[in-house]
Amino acid sequence: MADTSYGVNHALAVKLWSKKLFVEVLQECIAAKFIGETPGSLFQIKDEMSKTAGDKVTFGLRMQLSGRGTTGDNTQQDQEEQLVTYSDSLIIDQQRNAVRSGGKMSEQRVTFDVREEAKSGLVDWWADRIDTALFNQIGGNTAQSDTAYTGMQATLGPDSDHHLIAGAQANEQSLNSGHTFDLALIDTAVERARTISPGLRPVKAAGDEYWVMFIHPYVVTDMRKNTNTAQWYDIQKAALTGGNGNKNPIFTGALGMYNNTILHMDKRVPLGINASTGLAIATVRRGIFCGAQSGVVGFGRDYNNVTQFKWVEELFDYENKLGVCAGLVWGAKKTQFNSTDFGAITVATYAAAH
Questions:
Q1: Which CATH architecture has domain 162-295+337-350?
Q2: pLDDT tens-digit profile of 319-342?
Q3: Whole-prediction pTM
């Protein structure tokens, strides 16, 4: 019986392994389930640069008309209202990582396949890098200045309308152990989302409208330990079990729901920022309350397809050492128009390790 196999550097093998990497990264990446092509997606794909040359795409926002208009037979001519538009832009760049074996004898001493382990390692690395970048962006983590961790561009801090601080504190460095997470903060975020201008738009799923909120494991522990109110019970009584809701990606892996806000836990939710020093605060976490188009994601030409990643294998030192590289031309950014956040509200609370 003859086996079908694809050796190192085989043209079809490269495509197969690139596809496998892409699929497995998406399975491991929490943010991937929220990425989509429509304006109703939490992270919207801007595909212009995947179709043509360029490293930056500019996109616009038209504000709602707000004029009085005319009534009766009053003249409308020369009373027209001016359209108000703002723009934002997304930059993409190449990002890569690679693994190289120690050589044939090094590979001989272990029972695992170096090529397979290299793929697994790159899956973990890319999933973490994509999630980290998106959370740093929508969480406004300005303490992180290395764009390799922020979706290939600088982060932008939240404006005052999109920044809630527990206990109505003036800044995040003022938070203390009396300012842990409370479900009332979600109520405030929902109210803020519906009343500010421009308002946040909820994500549509399973025939209804929902918000999505990401919180740190420390915050989850605070809620579990809160015995004075029904904090954790209120979430669990709306737990997403059964029905059509849990078939939609935004429900998968959720902690539960409160006030139509789906709660997800992730350790990459960023730290708070000291407003005076610009440094991260180890005892503060920024929960991220999200609506549609909280962020945008873009890919370079030849990358926005089923293989997505560029998988390259090379042999070094007279074919003694195998090197594997996985790269992607991409970018991610929080949407912000006219210095105003568009789709996300940060909710800062005291949250320390227990």
A1: 2-Layer Sandwich (3.30)
A2: 898 889 999 999 999 999 999 999
A3: 0.88
